[in-house]
Amino acid sequence: MRTVAEGRGPGQDRRASTSPPQTGASHPLRILVFSASLRADSLNARLAALAATTIEAGGHTTDLATMAEFDAPSYNGDVEAAGGLPPGAENLRRRLEAAHGFVIASPEYNASLPGVLKNSIDWVSRNRPQPFNECHGLLLSASPSMAGGNRGLWALRIPFEHLGARMYPDMFSLAQAHRAFDELGRIGDAELQQRFDTTVANFLNLVEAATQYPCVKRAWVEYLGERPDPAIDRVDVAAAAPAAR
To answer: What's the pTM value of the predicted model, to 2 decimals?
Structure first.
């Protein structure tokens, strides 16, 4: 039985993910990395730390954070009207805008995403310009289950894609994660570790290409034929992208 579950785009060749990762970035990136679990020693925190190590080994810079740094009270429009974003949400907004992309290792709660992460997304989405728009993201998960938390990642894609984030098609889910890491914090199975490294490296290659060659960007439209309505829109297609992207 497989110990890793991955999400792929329609028609994507499974063999494409087995090519060796490239090292030595020609244009170093800054990537925000964090676990969506509030527990300090969670399996997803360990996977996030491994992702940060892999990114830095490729010549890039990481901003390794914790979900506790982005925690915020439940979204309340009255609280927003009175004082804007709470400190945790403001912290996430600021660090998103300083990064070229983000990597999140998220647990699966009842076949969906953690409420604490969804709440932070909801708060940050209220900012203008909306910082998830055109920001590249990679989703990871780790779980003791045989599915590796993969169902939660499919649910997590929905709010990010709605907000215009460029979510990488491949997702890495580590099954039976409670016994998957070695004493150095790497994945003990060499084949799975290579697949993890390749997934991260391919994501970085895409972010680097989009950053250096803006002609590859395309406007993201939720529904063709809709007339923009600033009162309800959550995707700012006309807003200038931050300089870091």
So the answer is: 0.80
